[in-house]
Amino acid sequence: MQNNPYADPEQSALPATDVEVTRESTGLVITDPQIDFLSERGVTWPVVGESVTEHNTVENIGRLLAAAKRHGLAVFISPHHYYPTDHGWRFGGPLEKLMHDIGMFDRKGPYSLDGFEGSGSDFMPQYREHILDGETVIASPHKVYGPENNDLVLQLRKRGVSRVILAGMSANLCTQAHLFELLEQGFEVAVVRDATAAARIPDGDGYQAAIINFRYVANALWTTEEAVRRMAAAA
Fold first, then answer.
1. pTM summary value
2. Which of 20, 146, 148, 230 satisfies CB 3.0 to 4.6 Å to 177 for a cystine?
3. On the CB side of 116, how many CA atoms lie within 13 Å of its CA?
4. Which GO terms describe its molecular function (predicted)?
């Protein structure tokens, strides 16, 4: 572990906190489980692929989805989609500009599935059986990073969810932004550290940035193995 740049410190200066998982009050939230982030065919693979592979992110997200379904926890997807009108935005940050420039998460329109299946905006094929089962809640798309402008919080509250197991892409962007907003909204949040990943570019390692903030603010920080075990033991 000494050579692992993401390993937790041997002695944390922060008090320990945790999240109790129950079937009635806990939901699994996955951000952006989409081809453009998680597949070798995705437009971001050149910068996220190394991190996705290192953390076994694709398989771990799949394990979380399967465990939640097996043990009766509600599942929520917060996807990222861009429509042609979104390309008319007049300003944005560096990553927003890049996403628009490379056509990330592009769809033909809010009411059209023309060309959607298998596109970068589509869900990873191995997740479709869980996401498209008629029970998983697919929130309206978030447009920048956080869920402030989609209906995820409403969907969680309407189902009595007060505790969230959070995973998905990308660690320092949408996943972190969802963590912060959910905390502000009064949810308890456990982040699954190896069911996310991030870009590595000359400007910095996004996963390193995220894992530090996860330690600082998340109510719990688990591995996939730990999250699956807790779901199985949920009352």
1. 0.97
2. 146
3. 15
4. hydrolase activity
